[in-house]
Amino acid sequence: MDTMDTMNPTNKSQPMEDLLAILGGSPRKEVITEGRCTSCETDSITEDSFRDALSIKEYTISGMCQKCQDDFFGVSEDGHGDPN
Ligand SMILES: [Zn+2]
Fold first, then answer.
1. Is residue 54 part of a domain?
2. What DSSP state is assigned to residue 48?
3. How far is the CA of 69 from the centre of ligand 1 (A)?
4. Residue 8 Cα, ligand 1 centroid: separation in angstroms?
5. Is the pLDDT score of 40 beyond 60?
6. From ligand 1's centre to the CA of 1, what distance in Å?
7. Ligand 1: centre distance to CA 15 (Å)
8. Is residue 80 part of a domain?
9. Gap from CA of 11 to ligand 1 centroid (Å)
10. How far is the CA of 45 from the centre of ligand 1 (A)?
11. Which phi and psi angles does 53 have, rounded to 5°?
12. 3 found inside a domain
């Protein structure tokens, strides 16, 4: 079985995307295009799914939905800083 063919980035025109995919461990670009999350099962993400423009921008970088961003970075909003 020749698996080497799959190693060729034939459909990749952006080397940076390859690098990010390797670093992130997920095909982020496809995930984001499809409105999914790289970290959980959420699959209907829209701009409305995010708290603000910064979170949307973060999604385009990390591919994580609002909830996962909160889990990952921690929620620093005042009034919700009480981890039980
Ligand atoms: Zn998520």
1. yes
2. G
3. 7
4. 30
5. yes
6. 36
7. 26
8. no
9. 26
10. 9
11. -60, -30
12. no
pLDDT at position 21 is 64
* CA gap 52, 23 in Å, rounded: 26
Q: Which two tokens stand for residue 4?
A: 């080497």
Q: How far is the CA of 38 from the centre of ligand 1 (A)?
A: 6
Tokens of residue 69, six digits: 């961003």
What is the predicted pLDDT for the residue at 22?
Answer: 62
Residue 29, pLDDT score: 82
In a domain, 45, yes or no: yes
Higher pLDDT: 50 or 84? It is 50
Interval 45-81: pLDDT, tens:
999 999 999 999 999 988 999 999 999 988 766 555 4
Q: How many domains does the chain have?
A: 1
* CA 60 to chain centroid: 6
**Ligand 1 centre and the CA of 42: distance in Å?**
6
Percent of the chain with pLDDT over 70: 58
Q: Which domain holds residue 39?
A: 14-73
